[in-house]
Specification:
By secondary structure, this protein is an alpha+beta fold. 59% of the residues lie in helices and 15% in strands. The strands form 2 sheets. The protein has a 4-stranded antiparallel sheet, covered by helices on one side. The protein has a two-stranded antiparallel ribbon with strand order 1-2. Helix 1 packs antiparallel against helix 3.
Length: 187
């Protein structure tokens, strides 16, 4: 019975770690005025009829703080890559020079910075909801174990541990959001 309880607590921590990982990926896609290759992650290019991630048909590099360079491995892929970037609606217009595509990140206005902060906070809220959902599911699991014969004291202790894990990960979400907000608002 106690092994099952430890498994539930370990599972809680592992699931919450995944939620944090997802949050990190999502907020890395939100640009903060600096060019990063993650901005074009999630863009799929029509490669001979198959949707293929952009980074699998071209070399994506950051040439300077505000420029992303995309060098296709096949010259004829420039058109489809350009279309995919426009269709992805990431707020950047591709500049095609015949051999490569450049994305120039314009300086962020104060209004645009505030919109990006709202997006970051929204992603943070999604992560918190996921973490709370994990907590609820695992506390229900502990209550089922209690019905199956686990003592009430041990069950309450497990619920307290799960709540402690939850608090730790919620604080981590807040910290990630605060860090990204600071990065975005820094001129």
């Amino acid at each position: 019975m106690v092994e099952a309880l430890e498994e539930v607590i370990d599972d809680t921590s592992a699931q919450m770690k995944k939620a944090i990982g997802h949050l990190e990926v999502e907020i890395s896609k939100i640009r903060a005025g600096k060019a990063t290759p993650q901005i074009v992650d999630g863009i799929f290019v029509d490669y001979y009829g198959n949707p293929t991630p952009l980074n699998q048909v071209a070399n994506v590099t950051v040439t300077d703080a505000r420029t992303i360079s995309i060098q296709p491995w096949e010259k004829k892929m420039i058109g489809p890559i350009e279309k995919a970037i426009i269709a992805a609606n990431i707020g950047l217009n591709p500049q095609n020079d015949g051999n490569s595509i450049r994305l120039f990140l314009p300086p962020l206005t104060e209004e645009r910075r505030r919109e990006l902060v709202k997006r970051v906070l929204g992603e943070g809220e999604h992560a918190k909801v996921a973490i709370r959902s994990i907590r609820r599911e695992n506390i229900e699991h502990v209550k089922k174990l209690q019905k199956d014969g686990l003592s009430e004291d041990i069950a309450k202790d497990a619920e307290t541990r799960i709540q402690g894990i939850t608090d730790k990960y919620i604080a981590l979400v807040d910290q990630h959001c605060k860090d990204k907000e600071k990065e975005i608002m820094t001129v």
